Amino acid sequence: MRTLKKIVAACGLGSAILLAGCSSVEPNGPVPVEYLSGTTLDRHQIRVAERTAYLEVKLNVLDSHLRLEEKAKIQAFVRDYISRGHGPLIMSLPKNHGNEELAVKAVAEAREIAWSAGVDYEEIRGSAYDAGGSNTAPIVLAFKAYDAIAPDCPQRSTIDFSDATSNNDLPTLGCSVRANMAAMIADPVDLLGQRPLDESDLARRTAQLELYRNGESTTAARGESESGAVSTAVN
């Protein structure tokens, strides 16, 4: 009986030693901890930064209206606002300008340019700043915008492609995809998920569903001038 107890005790001690030895080994082996959660693209996030876009419209005290080149700048700035601006379009008037009449007329012209481009008057906000009697103080236009910041992809020269220690994906995998997405996104604020989606076309969806139920084609009909055939003109 004593011999049996000694054997059991020895086996228990051996198991404990074995388990202790296993626990000292890195549980993930050569696999980095960050590889165990998320996907490859999650490791190369696109960041979104808020900024204020602004334009200084020069005023010439010898003029009674905005010059053509300044009007062209406003038109381009307004197009940019319509494309990716958020919140109101701010137009700041220089108070105590050397030519107050010109400053007021210039702001009115800027508002008219914005309205003609499709910006409602309700979307335009007025403000003022002290020009201190300066003749060169500009009108300032501003709006809130967002920029997509691409991930900082590691240089390929820093990667050892011959390292076959594990079957892990390389640190560069997916980074170029994210960088390209950051360059192509029209309005980076969409990455924040705050802008509501447009309403769906219920009538169109119902018509497509009826075609599907009747076993008819749901694709758009092609006209006589439309064809997917390859031209034989050069044969």
TrEMBL record:
<feature type="signal peptide">
    <location>
        <begin position="1"/>
        <end position="20"/>
    </location>
</feature>
<keyword id="KW-0732">Signal</keyword>
<protein>
    <recommendedName>
        <fullName>Pilus assembly protein CpaD</fullName>
    </recommendedName>
</protein>
<feature type="region of interest" description="Disordered">
    <location>
        <begin position="214"/>
        <end position="235"/>
    </location>
</feature>
<dbReference type="InterPro" id="IPR019027">
    <property type="entry name" value="Pilus_biogenesis_CpaD-related"/>
</dbReference>
<dbReference type="Pfam" id="PF09476">
    <property type="entry name" value="Pilus_CpaD"/>
</dbReference>
